[in-house]
Amino acid sequence: xxxxxxxxAWDRQTKQEDTRKKTLTSLMTYxxxxxxxxxxxxxxxxxxxxxxxxxSSGSEKSPLMxxxxxxxxxxxxxxxxxxxxxGKLLDKALWSIGITRDRVYxxxxxxxxxxxxRTPTMQEANVCAGRWLIREIQxxxxxxxxxxxxxxxxxxxxxxxxxIRSRGQWISWRNIPxxxxxxxxYLLRLEGKSLVDAKWQVxxxxxxAKECAxxxxxxxxxxxxxxxxxxxxxADRIAMRKEKNKLMCD
Length: 250
Ligand code: SF4
Fold this sequence. Notes:
It contains eleven helices and six strands. It has helices spanning 9-25, 30-37, 73-78, 85-96, 122-140, 150-157, 163-166, 184-188, 192-216, 230-233, 235-249, and strands at residues 57-58, 64-68, 105-108, 144-148, 171-173, 176-181. The chain has a six-stranded mixed β-sheet with strand order 1-3-2-4-6-5, sandwiched between helices. Bound molecules: iron/sulfur cluster. Residues 40-43, 45-46, 53, 110-112, 127-128, 131-132 line the site of iron/sulfur cluster.
């Protein structure tokens, strides 16, 4: 309040922020979260040139949550995480351990596409994940999280560490076991023996994550009969995104 008892800009801003926090923490279901998610413009990533936030894919009941880095070009266009070249590789890796994409919950640390697919900074990751990913985790209640790549690892660890040294070693975040492994985009940049070695490492990391989740959720069905085409499954969401992109360009 100022000297005359009037509400000043600082008071107003503080009240708005308090209301925002209360609104977010009161989100109880995935649908409630989704309803306010797409309007988010809480950080500068929203205006870096992408088409808006990308939330998740897969089952909200899955005991296994996979957390990637952020949307790339294809993901930004379609509005789905990990459906571009990295996503195709992820699908193959999951299939090799008996999982189809519809049976896991997949999301990202940052929801808006960083320009030119640059790696999000720790601060950007903390802002976005602090606002959305933490709510997703509270709602989905995964038994195990598979963290793909360095941004996801350092968010859960709370400090800057290298993924090469840390992959394959369990960490714990709010009592949830986290298995860090390489992001598929990293594998796509490798070749020869390095690629073969890294693929095996990812295979064993994912297998360990699945086995841990299976212990906690022994009745979960991990595999649909056929590999799942997410672009088919989410055709409506993709069409809506396309329409929105078109309106933005007109
Ligand atoms: S990156 Fe996250 S916090 Fe920033 S605008 Fe997008 S959804 Fe909101």
